[in-house]
Amino acid sequence: MNFQLRVWRQKDAKSRGRLVDYDAKEISPNTSLLEMLDIINDGLVTRGEEPIAFDSDCREGICGTCSLTVNGEAHGPDHPGAVCELYMRKFRDGETITVEPFRAKSFPLIKDLVVDRSALAASFRRALARRLRRIRF
């Protein structure tokens, strides 16, 4: 499968960002979107260019660090599901796919597709602390 990727690139939070086009050629339908970004990055590094910054951790649909906006939809068109479980078979051959970071005040952009999720982690810690206070040992 072949795709035209439009990926948000931004050096840092203060710089102006823009969508940059990349060709993704001969991609297996069983490749995840994150694996396709890895393939694009391999080519960028080989050419001496800056790779696309993006987050991923477990790549098993559990942790949520891979959260992105794909074609204007949070996590992409495969709901419910995480971007790491979004496979290219969900798209048409030759399709243009736009990949952007989450856009929310609570998740400020760090670089390219990476956002600061510390507000979410702090919220989880507060919720866990409340729950633990209610448990009697």
Structural key phrases:
single chain; 137 residues; alpha+beta; two-stranded antiparallel sheet; 23% helix; globular
How many helices? The count is 2
* Sheet with the most strands, sense and barrel status: 5 strands, mixed
Oligomeric state of the chains present here = single chain
State the low-pLDDT regions, or none: none
Distance between the termini: 56 Å
Radius of gyration in whole Å, from Cα? Answer: 17 Å
User: Order of helices and strands, N to C?
Assistant: EEHEEEEEH
Structure classification: alpha+beta
What strand order characterises the main sheet? 2-1-5-3-4
Mean pLDDT: 87
User: Count of DSSP E strands?
Assistant: 7
**Binned strand content:** 15-25%
The global form is: globular
Classify the helix fraction into a percent range.
10-25%
Characterization of the model:
The model has no long low-confidence stretch (mean pLDDT 87). Helix content is 23%, strand content 20%. Strands 2-1-5-3-4 form a 5-stranded mixed beta sheet, covered by helices on one side. A two-stranded antiparallel ribbon has the order 6-7. The relative contact order is 0.20. The longest helix has 17 residues, at 118-134. It is built from 2 helices and 7 strands. It has helices at 33-46, 118-134; strands at 3-9, 18-24, 69-70, 73-74, 96-100, 109-111, 114-115. The protein is an alpha+beta fold and 137 residues long. The protein is globular. The chain starts with a strand and ends with a helix. Strand 3 (69-70) and strand 4 (73-74) form a beta hairpin.
